[in-house]
């Protein structure tokens, strides 16, 4: 089998990381595994294994016919049988299907934002879906949305999986007091709800001022980013909330933190949660997307409603004041991830489904 992963960029993000994860994992399982970045390269390029064939399309616009011609030629030359576009790259795969009908397209929907998609974009997605051989979703909500809104009914739920490069060179050093650092690993985007984090930070500043928050993820330097930074300044949280931007040394950063948090309004299955689990970190998270299927309250983490700042703060304080609880919850989450979200378990289901197309 010859499979091509497709992603719009290789900037650090959940969907981008999963595209690389699939390409790397499949290189050990199929005849030919490749990945194409359609629009932009990025930091994740360095995480692509040597056994994976990499192609940069350099697409300049949505309807860049020359890039589609180059992509078609690449697929023909390398005998690609299945294209697996991740998130928004489905449209490029749809255009490829129009000029190379024999190829099978399997859309991998990660975004967890279907409730925010405009009717116009839903219509485009619906039209494109009629050309898909199958759809992979990362939570049950997305599966129901696809069943109700799209014209492809061959839909499978597959949880995300991840691996950590434990040999990476640690470059990033978190600010604040070692052993008292709280990590949020998420790009600066609306649905990640960093303003919720700021409310919690204000409360923690009053009760535990030596604990600090560390925001690691791509800064798009847009309106959301500007307002977030202005809010940090206006609330006088400059010494309590630190923004780092996108970083590659994920394993090193997570291991520096004592507690990890997720404050999202909407999610699929965040790769960050899996990474926290692999690193034995205690987690407090909002109860969105597929997270409640992994995190069991009080057992291997804490779950909070996405509007409940007070309970989020209370659970965080519990972890801060009880090192043994932090350790036990972190170990329990690690066990959950290893048992149910390993690369081997997910790939077995994936390959069985792919072979049935």
TrEMBL record:
SUPFAM superfamilies the record matches: UDP-Glycosyltransferase/glycogen phosphorylase
Lineage of source species: Bacteria, Pseudomonadati, Bacteroidota, Flavobacteriia, Flavobacteriales
Superkingdom classification of source: Bacteria
Gene Ontology molecular function: any one: glycosyltransferase activity
One of the Pfam families matching this protein, by short name: Glycos_transf_1
Glycosyl transferase family domain ranges (all copies): 179-332
Residues in Glycosyltransferase subfamily 4-like N-terminal domain copies: 12-162
Name of the featured protein: Glycosyltransferase involved in cell wall biosynthesis
Keywords on record: Transferase
Organism this protein belongs to: Flavobacterium aciduliphilum
């Amino acid at each position: 089998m010859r499979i091509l992963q497709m992603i719009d960029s290789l900037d650090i993000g959940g969907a981008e990381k999963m595209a690389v994860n699939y390409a790397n994992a499949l290189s050990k399982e199929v005849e030919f595994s490749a990945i194409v970045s359609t629009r932009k390269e990025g930091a994740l390029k360095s995480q692509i294994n040597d056994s994976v064939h990499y192609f940069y399309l350099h697409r300049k616009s949505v309807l860049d016919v020359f890039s589609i011609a180059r992509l078609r030629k690449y697929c023909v030359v390398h005998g690609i049988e299945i294209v697996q576009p991740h998130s928004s790259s489905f449209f490029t795969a749809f255009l490829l299907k129009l000029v190379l009908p024999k190829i099978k397209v399997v859309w991998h929907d990660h975004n967890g934002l279907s409730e925010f998609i405009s009717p116009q974009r839903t219509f485009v997605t619906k039209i494109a879906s009629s050309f898909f051989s199958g759809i992979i979703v990362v939570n049950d909500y997305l599966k129901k949305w696809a069943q109700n809104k799209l014209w492809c009914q061959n839909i499978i739920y597959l949880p995300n999986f991840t691996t950590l490069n434990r040999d990476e060179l640690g470059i990033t050093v978190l600010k604040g007091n070692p052993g008292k650092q709280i990590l949020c690993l998420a790009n600066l985007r609306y649905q990640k709800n960093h303003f919720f984090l700021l409310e919690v930070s204000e409360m923690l500043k009053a009760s535990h001022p030596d604990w600090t928050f560390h925001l690691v993820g791509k800064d798009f330097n847009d309106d959301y980013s500007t307002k977030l930074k202005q809010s940090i300044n206006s609330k006088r949280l400059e010494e309590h909330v630190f923004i780092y931007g996108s970083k590659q040394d994920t394993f090193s950063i997570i291991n520096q933190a004592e507690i990890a948090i997720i404050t999202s309004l909407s999610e699929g299955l965040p790769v960050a949660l899996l990474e926290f689990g692999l690193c034995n970190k205690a987690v407090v998270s909002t109860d969105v997307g597929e997270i409640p299927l992994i995190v069991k309250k009080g057992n291997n983490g804490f779950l909070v409603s996405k509007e409940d700042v007070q309970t989020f703060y209370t659970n965080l304080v519990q972890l801060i004041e009880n090192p043994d609880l932090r350790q036990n919850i972190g170990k329990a989450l690690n066990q959950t991830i290893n048992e149910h979200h390993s690369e081997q378990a997910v790939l077995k289901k994936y390959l069985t489904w792919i072979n049935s197309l």
